[in-house]
Write a structure and sequence with these properties.
Radius of gyration of chain B: 18 Å
Shape of chain A: globular
Number of helices of chain B: 3
Distance between the termini of chain B: 29 Å
Number of domains of chain B: 1
Oligomer: heterodimer
Helix content of chain B: over 70%
Shape of chain B: elongated
Helix content of chain A: 25-40%
Number of strands of chain A: 17
CATH superfamily of the domain at 6-165 and 377-395 in chain A: NAD(P)-binding Rossmann-like Domain
Largest interface: A-B, 8 and 15 residues
Number of helices of chain A: 14
Strand content of chain A: 15-25%
Chain lengths: 431, 79
């Protein structure tokens, strides 16, 4: 059982400064990225993109806009994806074998956007070959692989970035700042959810390619909703609570999409922390009414982080004159109750949340294709390129990603065993 | 159809009535700031509400004045 105090955890994560506590790795990373961008000016990170599917192409589009990045190699085993990427980067060399791409002497760093089960072998091969590595989230398919990847990263002295882009999303930075300043009081709950209404399938030109293309649906390749969606949101527990959960439990089932997939299409997981706080993650992919969000519940307010909104428990009262008019209006027009209600449904108030910052970039969730919203991905990959040039790893990024990935995988384990499990001691990183 | 002539005297009287309504709305704003313990800056931030309220009060005076005029006409007709 892991019971780290806030201070111990921060110490382990390296975020206690001499003059006091730095909030979390977030602001630290932000300033690190800015500093490194200055130092990297004039240099170029020569990258190999391994995995040129939809996520790989997204990164390629971003990289082509960065003056300090150069794509020198492309690698994929699926020819149509490789051809799509080659059209965008005509100068880059093409590979079918990631080992050859890694061995290319013109390559300084590799960016991995492959199916999850390939993250660890490619990242480890890259680090061991002396290359800097950017790997999409989740870190790896198994907890053991996450740990192994972390060990190799520490031994290699090379740069490793994991694609947890919320670390570079200004909304999240602001939210953490608000939480730390006490704007919502004592934190009493964390709710993460991600609802969609689609089968999560990609078109398959030939049945033999089903597992290669729809890898997210099969357990050998993916941890399903936990590794693909939850791993983004489970960081909230680490950021907000600054400790690791002691108990994890949950249920997962295939409720609606009974189409031969192996991963759950409906999950509910609870992470219990030693201080009594609980963080939940729920995902259903056959109803999208509530979309996705991370909600931090405090005794004085609630933050909806993905939407960048703050709701106060006791909102600022309306101006006096409006209160007066309302009161007169109620006295004149309201019915006189003949008896008070013994119970009223306590549905949520219709109070509108206060935006936590100017120029909020959010998305209404109706369409996730072509959404021009900066979710931090650009900043994260840009910071990686700066790190490739300077050779300096980002502080705590890998640790944050490691715990987010391990928590996602432990959620799967709890659901598969239908049990309450503890956080395994052996997977706590050394302080 | 005939032209309706509003005399200068009548116009002055209406302006005076509206001025009193505006003053009453302003006083109500001050009173509500005190009663509901809100911020004094509402003296200028809520001027639009004060203006709306003054118009509302002015129309209320019209209703009462029309009623007064109708009742007076009724008594005059009976006598």
């Amino acid at each position: 059982m892991q019971d780290l105090s806030r201070r111990e955890f921060l110490k382990n994560m390296g975020v206690i400064g001499g003059s006091g506590i730095v909030f979390s790795s977030l602001p630290l990373l932000h300033s690190f990225a800015q500093k490194k961008a200055e130092e990297a000016k004039g240099g170029k990170a020569r990258l190999a993109i391994i995995g040129t599917g939809s996520r790989g192409l997204y990164h390629i589009h971003n990289l082509l806009k960065m003056p300090h990045a150069e794509i020198v190699a492309l690698c994929d085993i699926y020819p149509p994806h490789l051809e799509d990427a080659a059209r965008l980067c005509p100068q880059a060399k093409h590979y079918n074998d990631y080992n050859e791409a890694i061995a290319d002497r013109h390559v300084d760093g590799i960016l991995i956007a492959t199916p999850l089960h390939e993250h660890a072998p490619i990242a480890i091969a890259g680090l061991q070959a002396g290359k800097h590595v950017f790997c999409e989230k989740s870190m790896a398919r198994t907890i053991e692989q996450c740990r192994q990847m972390y060990e190799v990263y520490k031994e290699s002295g090379k740069v490793l970035y994991i694609g947890i882009q919320r670390l570079f999303d200004p909304k999240y930075l602001k939210a953490i700042e608000l939480i730390e300043s006490g704007a919502i009081g004592k934190i009493v709950g964390l709710r993460n959810f991600w609802y969609r209404n689609n089968d999560w399938r990609r078109p398959v030109p030939d049945p033999s390619l089903e597992r290669q293309i729809n890898w997210r649906l099969y357990k050998d390749y993916s941890g399903g909703l936990m590794t693909e969606l939850a791993s983004h949101q489970l960081q909230m527990g680490t950021w907000v609570n600054k400790s690791l959960p002691d108990y994890i439990t949950g249920f997962g089932d295939i409720v609606f999409w009974k189409d031969g997939r192996e991963v759950y299409d409906s999950v509910s997981v609870i992470y219990h922390y030693p201080n009594g706080l609980r963080m939940t993650f729920e995902s259903i992919i056959s109803n999208k009414r509530y979309g996705m969000d991370e909600q931090v519940l405090g005794h004085e307010g609630t933050l909806e982080v993905a939407r960048g909104l703050l709701y106060r428990e006791n909102p600022k009262p309306a101006p006096g004159i409006q209160q007066l008019i309302n009161q007169i209006e109620h006295k004149v027009f309201d019915n006189i109750p003949f008896a008070g209600p013994s119970w009223v449904p306590e549905t949520a108030t219709s109070v509108k949340g206060e935006p936590i910052m100017d120029n909020l970039q959010t998305h209404d969730g109706s369409n996730t294709t072509g959404a021009d919203v900066d979710d931090g991905s650009f900043g994260l990959v840009s910071a990686f390129c700066s790190s490739v040039i300077t050779g300096e790893p980002a502080p705590m990024l890998v640790e944050e990603a490691y715990y987010a990935s391990v928590l996602a995988l432990l959620g799967n384990k709890a659901m598969e065993e239908r049990a309450v499990i503890g956080f395994p001691e052996e997977y706590v990183l050394p302080g | 159809m005939k032209d309706i002539i509003i005399t200068v005297k009548k116009q002055r009287a209406e302006l005076m009535i509206y001025g009193v309504c505006l003053l009453a709305a302003f006083v109500l704003n001050v009173a509500s700031i005190i009663i509901y313990n809100t911020e004094w800056k509402e003296l200028y931030t809520q001027l639009l509400w004060v203006f709306c309220l003054s118009v509302g009060i002015y129309f209320l005076t019209i209703v009462f004045r029309v009623l007064y005029w109708l009742i007076r006409r009724l008594f005059q007709w009976r006598n």
